[in-house]
Amino acid sequence: MSYIQNSFSVQFEYKVFFTEHLFDPANPEFAGFLDSRAEKGIRKKLLFIVDDGVTKEHQTLQEQITAYCGNLEGYELVQDIIVVPGGEASKNDLQLFYWLVNEIDQHAIDRHSYVVGIGGGSVLDLVGYVAAVSHRGIKHIRIPTTVLSQNDSGVGVKNGINYHGKKNFLGTFAPPAAVFNDAHFLTTLDERDWRSGMIEAVKVALIKDAAFFEWMEQHAAELSAGEPKSLQYLIRRCAELHMQHIGGAGDPFESGSSRPLDFGHWSAHKLEQLTDFELRHGEAVSIGIALDSVYAWLNGMLDEGSLERIIQLLKNLRLPLYHPLLDIEEDGSSPIMAGLEEFREHLGGRLTIALLEGIGKGKEVHSIDPATLRKAVVMLRDKW
Fold first, then answer.
1. Does the predicted TM-score (pTM) go above 0.90?
2. Pairing state of beta strands 166-173 and 158-163?
């Protein structure tokens, strides 16, 4: 046998900055980061792509960006700040994806330049994917504007769009150059959005950090009311736990089938699709967590006291526990069950579902019993 073997490793590093009023002239965070990446003799471009929901609530944002970036040494702002539809619709529109790739081409954005995404998780997923596939990888900066994106999707390494109704079917693993969490953007969120965004903190606490779960139980009233100090702690701790997992689990690009951070997500992704994304991602994950927690209790994995605490916290945060599309017929047929195979397919390899053995202690299983799952659905529907 004759062959040539090659082996190399690539180091990735990025920071998540916590700040307020990012584009205030007195705020040095964004300028300082770019200055640290400046290269002598090379003038880099900045192309901003912004969620239209953000521009509606922050009507002077584009002027602020223009004024702020006009003072940056070594950088040139593309004057056409691009505004795109927000929400899951942005990930369902292939023509929008192609149009943004064409904008990269038209504005001659090269691999020294930066694409800057401002918006919720869906827009950041789209922008990150556009950047990752253009010129085989343009650096991108994320500025998440929702609780869900600031504590979860915006601080990770995944980018993607939906295809043929399947969530994130097209995508890449491409870490951002930096993430800027600006707390001011949260002040204009719809209550439904900031409330559902908290579920990712519940999720990561349940599988990794019992003390964090206890903190949420103690501060549920403030969190449910959107009290800024408590919400900011929740976002920061949740982001920290997510980043620790991504960087320390040994599989940041998910080459294996183990994905504990997807606890509660197998049914959530299908529920989103079945409701034509009328359900927010966080609302669907809340239902998924409730379903998998009851299933784990029925399966003898989780004690009843822990189950009651989980359900009570979700109720205290005023998050949903059930949707009629969960219902499973006695013969096992159900629109939600197709989500299991789609989840396995998305993982690659055998089905791997994260369940709970206790609060703060996750365990992976490789099969789900439809009869037990049906009992869990009935409990969610009739008991709570």
1. yes
2. antiparallel
The answer to whether 301 and 363 are in contact (CB under 8 A) is yes
Q: Residue 328: how many CB atoms within 10 A of its CB?
A: 19
Residue with tokens 């949707």: 323
Residue 243 to residues 16, 150, 236, 249: CA-CA distances in angstroms?
Answer: 10, 12, 11, 10
Q: To which residue do tokens 């006291």 refer?
A: 305
The tens place of each residue's pLDDT in the chain, 384 residues long, gives 899 999 998 889 999 999 999 999 999 999 999 999 999 889 999 999 999 999 999 999 999 999 999 989 999 999 999 999 999 999 999 999 999 999 999 999 999 999 999 999 999 999 999 999 999 999 999 999 999 999 999 999 999 999 988 888 999 999 999 999 999 999 999 999 999 999 999 999 999 999 999 999 999 999 999 999 999 999 999 999 999 988 877 667 776 655 778 899 999 989 998 998 899 999 999 999 999 999 999 999 999 999 999 999 999 999 999 999 999 877 767 888 877 777 777 666 678 899 999 999 999 999 899 899 999 999 999 988
Query: 58, 65 in Cβ contact below 8 A?
Result: no
